[in-house]
Structure formats: structure tokens, C-alpha cells
Write a structure and sequence with these properties.
Elements lengths: L3 H16 L9 H9 L4 H11 L5 H13 L3 H4 L1 H21 L5 H12 L2 H7 L5 H20 L4 H15 L6 H15 L3 H31 L9 H14 L5 H26 L5 H17 L11 H21 L2 H24 L10 H10 L4 E5 L5 H5 L6 E3 L8 H14 L2 E5 L11 H9 L1 E8 L2 E7 L1 H6 L2 E7 L2 E9 L8 E11 L7 E8 L5 E7 L17 E9 L2 E11 L3 E2 L9 E8 L1
Parallel strand pairs: 1-2, 1-3
Antiparallel strand pairs: 3-5, 4-5, 6-7, 7-8, 8-11, 9-10, 9-12, 12-13, 12-14
Helix pairs in contact: 1-6, 1-7, 3-12, 6-7, 6-8, 6-9, 6-16, 7-16, 9-10, 9-11, 9-16, 10-12, 11-12, 11-15, 13-14, 14-16, 14-17, 15-16, 16-17, 20-21
């Protein structure tokens, strides 16, 4: 048996790797949802989990208690998954020791090392969800099972097994196949010992009662659950699982598959070695992995539920197989062979962790911090923030006074309702900050962004990892800062014009002109807008011509009395200029004002 201080040292290594850059990645949507969800009181939280979440309640209860006690900043709130992930490290080592039989301490130590440095587990240890908790309780349940198997008459060990397994059942449904495997092994190994079998079945009846009671309460959510994964072939499912178990989500495709194939070969060798060492019990880890992955894949035949994260519960047992395979290489071939195999697997983990920690392409979530920071800095009274997808992460990071609107408010999208809501919003707000997300289950066609592109003026945009913002000025906002007009050209009215000249600009100077038009009735012809800068002799020195709104809003598409924002940029030379605005047909000349002029003077300026 390995000395305890070795497992303590490995656990400290695991802690250091999981605590490193714990707050480097912003919260994901699922993490922000947990924070929002656990703000309810205790009884309401349990009922809400039963009505809305396809998971048991234990993690949410722990997360609520921790949030109430310590807060919800990343480095604090993620301590809970980190704790359970570290707890699993010595536990998996002890499982490896027992499955390896006499001299199995090497299996346990290698398995613990592999779990300590595993990118898949480190990723989830820095993620405020229940998955590392399911890992810890699954491994502890199997460890308690193995200890009870050694002394089936020990009531204390039976009670420990029952308590730990109950916690596992209340953490995640993916632990249930592990309990099924335990039952098969127990019945086979103790079928002749009636008292031990009866006590065991009594405990299992209690665990089944807990599971069935919660399943009955949670059945509406489970029956309507449409999946958070996909439906791969069996071969693809095995490949993806092997990659996830070894390199997680941040292994580069060039080498992650090769490393995972090597890992599979080592795991098969480890299975053979364990069976040779401890007989049928040595197959326990392999059976747990095969059953867990197989059932997950079989479930995906009905709905798209295959997700590597759901397989985290059985991943620790795969690492036991890897540990056994490495030990087998060292003993069947030569010690150097085992050392090389261990070095290869650790190197694969290290490369993947380097990507996760340092390569932005492997960031685990959209960078919601940045848009929240920009909006908090640059927002003005009269602004509105629009989200077109119900991700709670932005509202976790943004705590400012600007109102946040979700449009569309529900799925499937009601296009008419979205149009009405956006029209009302652009009539009220001066500027709109849109954070567009293209999600298949919500605004999949980008309806909100497309509408705003046609009915407001995009004046700024910025992007970060997986997220961007677009700032629009509405007709209301343009008119608030524009010079008002009541001029008409052929029945089309100019309501206002804003002239924006950069401070301290020297010729040639970029001049931005923003116009707001409307028509009492839908025009039957397409007109173009011209903005001319003319000198004192009337000669044109700069101009911008084109269809309104950057060619996005031809006049034949205007609704009656709809306000149209139209922006133009001119490069104005030095000197005094007048700015003229007008409308014209491609063939047929300019439209006239009621008093016969073919343009409207909107201002004068001098450029140095």
C-alpha cells in the first residue's frame, strides 16, 4: 500500500493545477444560470430544480449554501467544483490500489497522478457545475463498495457505502449505471452469502427509492428534455470519449487523436493485467467505463444527448485502467517502458493544458466581461441594451443602470411581435447596444440584428472571443442631436440633419452627415440621396451619393411615416463650404421643394 504522504502530495499538485488561473475564463452561461438559480430560498430552489432542471438537486443546494456564505466571484464560487475534483484524486488512487490486488499501490499512484494532471478534469474543476461532484461521489461509492466487498458483514462499511451512494444519486443521473454494475458484481460474488446479500439488497432498495422519488418529481422535465449533445456513431462516440478522457476539450487535433489511440491501447492492456491480478473484480473499472459510455451512446439513438461531459462520472475508472496498463508495461517489458508510457500521457495532458490556459482559441466561454465593461464605460442615459438570446452571463457581469431587454422574449420566434417590439424600442431609445448571438434554438436567422441594420444607424462595433457588440443610433437619437427641418422634396420630408466633424480635424477632413427622412405614403420610385459640399462659387468640392442608409433602405420599401436614418461621409477640403442635401431619380433629375429648389441647405462650416 502506498504511503499516505504520496497521495497528499499528488492531491496538492491537483489543487495547484486547478487553482491556477481559476478566474482566467469568464463564466459560461450554465455557470451564470446556477448563480441566478440559487438566489431563491431553499424550498423554492428544490421545487424549481424539479420543475426546470434535468438534474438532481444536491449540487444546487451546496452551491446555494456556498454562495450565501462566500459570494459568487469566479475565484470563490468555483471552489466547490475544485474541492470535489481534488477529493477525487486520492480516492481514485485507493480504487486503483484495491483493484490492483497485492502490489497494486503502483496502479493507484499512477491513476492519481493521471487524474491530478488531466485536462478534462481541470477544465471541469474550474467550472461551477455539478460534474466534478458526480466524479468524486462515483469514485467514493466504488471505493466504499470495494471496502465492503472485503468485509461484507461490516455494518459500518455498509452504512458508509449507503450514505456516499445516496449523495451520488442526488448529484447526477449518470452515476446510476455505476450502481447497476456494483449490483451485478455483488450478486455474483456474494450470491451464496444470504445475510450479506439481504443487507445489500435492502440498501439498494433504499437507493432506488431515493432515485425513483426524485425521478417521479422530475419526470416532466426529463420527458421533455430534447438533449444537449448529438447522435454520433458508436465508433465516433468511442473516439470522442477517448480523446476527452485524455486531452479534454483543448487537445490540438493534430496529436490528440493519436494520443487517445495510444491511451486506448494502454487501457486495454491495463484491463487484461487487472483481471490477471484480481480475477473478475479486476474487470470492474472496465465494465463501469463500457456500461457508462455504452448507455450514453444508446440513449443518443433516441435523442441528441451524447455529451462527453456527461461521461465525466466514469472517467476516473478509465484512468485506473491507464494506470494499470502503465504498470503492466513496466513489469511485462521493462521499467523504462512504463515510464515512457506515463511520460507520453502526461505530455499529452501538458500540451492540452497549455492550450486551455494560454491559447485564446481554446477559451471555454464567450468573453462576456468585455462587452459589459465597454457598455458600463460608454453608455449614456436613454440607451437600451438588447440581448437576442437568453444567456444570463452578460447580466452577471453588467451591473449598470442601463435597462436590458430580451428580444425575442421566447422561442419559437414570433416575427411580427419582434418587429413591433423593436419598432417601439427605436421610437423610445436614443441608442441601442445589441449583443447578437446566433443560436439554433432562439434567433437563429439573426432577425433582431437584421431589423436594426435596416431601421437604425450602426455607429460602432467591437468583438472578443465568441461575442461582439453593435451600437446603433436610432432615429430618435439622431433627431435629439440634429438641427430640425421641415423641408420636403417631392413629398419626402427631411426631419433633421446632424453634422459631425472630428475635433481638431485638418483637411481633408472626414465629415459625417446623419439625416432623418420620412414619407407620408410609400414612394413608388427609387430615389437616391446626395450630400454635396460646395465652395463659395457653388462648385462641388466633396460629395456622397447613394441609396438611403448605405443602400439598405431603398425608398420603395419605406412604410408611411417611418423614420429613416441615412448616414453619409465626405472628405472635405480646406475652406468654407455649404452642405446641400437632395433627392434624385437615376433617370429624370432631382426632386424639388415646394418653392422650386432642388436641394436643402443643412449647414455651413470652415475646415482649416
Amino acid at each position: 500500500m502506498a504511503r499516505p504522504w504520496l497521495f497528499v502530495a499528488i492531491a496538492w499538485l491537483a489543487f495547484a493545477l486547478r487553482a491556477f488561473r481559476l478566474d482566467a475564463h469568464p463564466y459560461r452561461g450554465d455557470e451564470a444560470f446556477v448563480i441566478w438559480f440559487v438566489q431563491q430560498d431553499w424550498l423554492a430552489l428544490v421545487a424549481a430544480v424539479a420543475r426546470n432542471e434535468p438534474h438532481p438537486p444536491l449540487y444546487y443546494l451546496i452551491a446555494k449554501g456556498w454562495r450565501d456564505l462566500a459570494g459568487d466571484v469566479e475565484t470563490v464560487f468555483r471552489i466547490v467544483p475544485l474541492f470535489f475534483s481534488v477529493l477525487a484524486v486520492p480516492a481514485v488512487g485507493k480504487v486503483g490500489e484495491r483493484l490492483g490486488g497485492k502490489g497494486g499501490s503502483a496502479v493507484g499512484l499512477v491513476a492519481a497522478i493521471l487524474l491530478a494532471v488531466n485536462p478534462f478534469h481541470i477544465w471541469n474543476a474550474q467550472d461551477a457545475r455539478m460534474y466534478t461532484q458526480s466524479v468524486a461521489f462515483s469514485i467514493l461509492s466504488v471505493l466504499a463498495f470495494l471496502r465492503l466487498d472485503e468485509r461484507p458483514k461490516d455494518g459500518g462499511r455498509l452504512a458508509q457505502y449507503a450514505a456516499i451512494s445516496a449523495l451520488a444519486v442526488l448529484t447526477h443521473y449518470t452515476v446510476l449505471p455505476i450502481l447497476v454494475v456494483q449490483n451485478v458484481f455483488w450478486v455474483i460474488r456474494h450470491r451464496g452469502a444470504r445475510p450479506a446479500l439481504v443487507r445489500w439488497l435492502a440498501v439498494q432498495a433504499g437507493l432506488a427509492g431515493i432515485a425513483l422519488a426524485w425521478l417521479a418529481w422530475n419526470r416532466t422535465v426529463l420527458l421533455s428534455y430534447s438533449g444537449n449533445g448529438d447522435q454520433p456513431t458508436l465508433v465516433a462516440a468511442i473516439q470522442r470519449t477517448a480523446v476527452a478522457y485524455l486531452t479534454g476539450r483543448s487537445g490540438s487535433p493534430e496529436w490528440a487523436m493519436l494520443a487517445s489511440l495510444f491511451g486506448l491501447a494502454v487501457a486495454v492492456l491495463g484491463t487484461v493485467w487487472l483481471i490477471r491480478r484480481t480475477g473478475a473484480l479486476g474487470a470492474l473499472a472496465a465494465v463501469v467505463v463500457i456500461v457508462g459510455v455504452g448507455l450514453q451512446w444508446a440513449a443518443s439513438l433516441r435523442a441528441p444527448v451524447f455529451n462527453e461531459t456527461y461521461l465525466l462520472s466514469v472517467s476516473g475508472f478509465y484512468l485506473v485502467l491507464l494506470g494499470a496498463g502503465i504498470v503492466a508495461l513496466g513489469r511485462w517489458l521493462m521499467p523504462a517502458a512504463g515510464a515512457v508510457a506515463l511520460a507520453v500521457l502526461i505530455a499529452a495532458s501538458g500540451l492540452s493544458l497549455g492550450n486551455y490556459w494560454l491559447n485564446p482559441a481554446y477559451a471555454k466561454a464567450a468573453d462576456w466581461r468585455s462587452p459589459a465593461r465597454v457598455i458600463a464605460r460608454d453608455a449614456r442615459p436613454g440607451d437600451v441594451i438588447v440581448l437576442n438570446y437568453p444567456d444570463p452571463t452578460f447580466e452577471y457581469y453588467y451591473r449598470g443602470p442601463i435597462p436590458v431587454r430580451l428580444i425575442p422574449a421566447a422561442a419559437p420566434v414570433d416575427r411580427a411581435a419582434v418587429t413591433r417590439e423593436l419598432a417601439a424600442l427605436t421610437a423610445e431609445a436614443r441608442r441601442i447596444w445589441l449583443i447578437p448571438v446566433r443560436a439554433a434554438n432562439w434567433d437563429s436567422e439573426g432577425l433582431v440584428e437584421s431589423w436594426l441594420e435596416h431601421h437604425a444607424l450602426p455607429i460602432a462595433t467591437a468583438g472578443w472571443h465568441q461575442v461582439r457588440i453593435v451600437l446603433y443610433e436610432t432615429p430618435t437619437g439622431v433627431l435629439a442631436e440634429a438641427t430640425p427641418f421641415t423641408a420636403e422634396l417631392g413629398g419626402i420630408r427631411l426631419h433633421g440633419a446632424a453634422i459631425v466633424l472630428p475635433t481638431g480635424c485638418h483637411a481633408p477632413c472626414p465629415l459625417n452627415v446623419r439625416l432623418v427622412w420620412s414619407a407620408g405614403r410609400r414612394p413608388t420610385e427609387e430615389y437616391k440621396v446626395f450630400v454635396h459640399a460646395v465652395d463659395d462659387r457653388g462648385a462641388i468640392v466633396a460629395q456622397s451619393d447613394g441609396m438611403p442608409a448605405g443602400w439598405r433602405r431603398p425608398t420603395t420599401g419605406w412604410s408611411p411615416d417611418e423614420l429613416i436614418v441615412d448616414a453619409h461621409e465626405l472628405q472635405v477640403p480646406a475652406g468654407h463650404v455649404r452642405l446641400l442635401v437632395g433627392l434624385y431619380r437615376e433617370q429624370g433629375g432631382r426632386l424639388l421643394t415646394p418653392d422650386g429648389h432642388d436641394s436643402i441647405t443643412i449647414g455651413e462650416l470652415t475646415v482649416r
